[in-house]
Amino acid sequence: MKVSSSYLKVIEKLQNHGFKTYIVGGYVRDALLGRQSPDCDICTSANSGQIKKIFKKYICVGEKHGTITVQSDNKWVEVTTLRIDGTYSNNRHPDKIEFTDDIEIDLSRRDFTVNAMAYSPFSSESEQIIDIFHGISDLKNKIIRCVRDPNLRFQEDALRILRAIRFSSYLDFDIESCTYNAILNNLELLKKLSKERITQEFLKILAHPTRIELLIKTEIFQTIFNVKFKNKVDKNSYKSSFILTKKYFSNLIDSLIYFIFELYLMSEISLYDLSSKIFEVLKINKSDKLIILKIIENLNLRVPVNFLGIKLLINEIGQSNFEKLIKIQKNITQTYSTRKELSKLKLIEYKYRVIIKKKQPIFMKDLSITGKYLQKIGYHDKQIGQILDCLLEFVTWLPENNTDEYLKKILSDPIDLLRNSE
């Protein structure tokens, strides 16, 4: 198992001071699958005070949970004391934690067998992997299985329900039957999760959407977002219901738009209402949310085929959003609509390229006359805005007239210009 020297030095240093130290969790899982893992979790029998005595440079954020971040080769590495979790009265965090020097006790509190393995790089080869819950076997059989009682695991922390779907989708593994049934039995616990925690897990699922249909099939999505689906939709058909979501997941905005659209095809409410329900729960940044809503608002509208309509739509939603709208609409049309609809979109794309190539005015910044010029010849504030709006409307219809000479000529009678624009 390949491990960075900065991590190995931390492990070696702790072991040289008499403390048992291991790599645990996702790093071990991914290494056994031949995957690269971005994080390396190190656990040790040393407590936080002992860790601080061994390393010269450290950060104490997370110390109450037993985590100290130490420096190794100019890299910061988290080291956590092996621990035992107490009861979970709030279905989120243990009421108390106790520290231990027993790796098997620490592994027994973890969520899934494939995440409950430890690696000791300086032990003999036969003792390097600690796998008391048969995680290696589940990796070989491509199974997500809870450690011990799945109902108890989900009742301890309801977020593990979403994590089960995430790992199933990320690894393309089946969820073991007892674990799957426990998900169905504990759906109501999802309502106790914070929006921030839901968002974090949901976006991770969306980033690896191989089995994203499980969100619907298990009714996790319906429970969290309070959305109903058409009775006629067969649960067994969900796997083929997210073609675009699985094909185009390169970025958050596109992924969410495709996912929402494909949910809409199964839902009983409008596309915009569905989006609104989703964003009542998901906490994503405001600018991304506005872009998504602008594009979704126009997905079910017919994009105009004429030059004027195209320019007006670009003016309304912005050029980059228009390009994204056409790209997404094209992918949707290729998957779910007719050749006739696709031909229309290709015509719109062609006319859009003509508009850009000829530099036809779309926005106020495209006018050959500026607000500074109007100010220079004696106009002020509200007047300037009104006149520029009228000029833009005029040249949107007649782009060939967007010249200094022509616009200065019609500015000779601005009252008439304003009257004609009403």
What are its keywords?
422 residues; alpha+beta; Beta Polymerase, domain 2; cca-adding enzyme, domain 2; 4 domains; seven-stranded mixed β-sheet; two-stranded antiparallel sheet; 22 helices; 11 strands; elongated
Summarize this, please?
With 422 residues, the protein is α+β, with helices and mostly antiparallel strands.
Structural summary, described in words:
With 422 residues, the protein is an alpha+beta fold. It folds into four domains: 1-133, Beta Polymerase, domain 2; 142-277, cca-adding enzyme, domain 2 (Orthogonal Bundle); 301-357, no CATH class; 365-421. It contains 22 helices and eleven strands. The protein has helices at residues 5-16, 26-32, 48-54, 103-108, 135-141, 150-156, 159-171, 177-185, 195-207, 214-217, 220-225, 243-247, 252-264, 271-281, 286-299, 307-317, 319-336, 339-357, 371-376, 381-397, 404-410, 414-421, and strands at 21-24, 41-44, 58-59, 67-72, 75-81, 83-85, 97-99, 118-119, 129-130, 143-144, 174-175. The chain has a seven-stranded mixed sheet with strand order 3-4-5-2-1-8-9. Strands 6-7 form a two-stranded antiparallel sheet. Helix 7 (159-171) runs parallel beside helix 9 (195-207). The longest helix is centred in the C-terminal third of the chain and has 19 residues, at 339-357. The radius of gyration is 29 Å and the shape is elongated. The chain starts with a helix and ends with a helix. The mean pLDDT is 89.
